[in-house]
Design a protein that fits this description.
The chain is an all-alpha fold. The protein contains 2 helices and no strands. Helix 1 crosses helix 2.
Length: 60
């Protein structure tokens, strides 16, 4: 079976300096450069949650 790197584990976003608003805005910028519409309103929370789910395994 092929090893996976994501999700990387349970996150402690209070102490993980990598998971920042800047990361989310960088992801949004990349999506926009590839032709996706820029998020508006509650879309930002959806992008934040989606990136979080990609990177970290949730508890439970």
């Amino acid at each position: 079976m092929e090893e996976q790197n994501y999700p990387i584990g349970i996150a402690d976003t209070e102490t993980d300096p990598r998971f920042t608003a800047g990361l989310i805005f960088d992801v949004i910028d990349v999506l926009e450069r590839h032709g996706y519409p820029r998020p508006v309103g509650a879309d930002y929370a959806q992008v934040h949650c989606g990136v979080f789910r990609l990177l970290y395994r949730s508890v439970g």
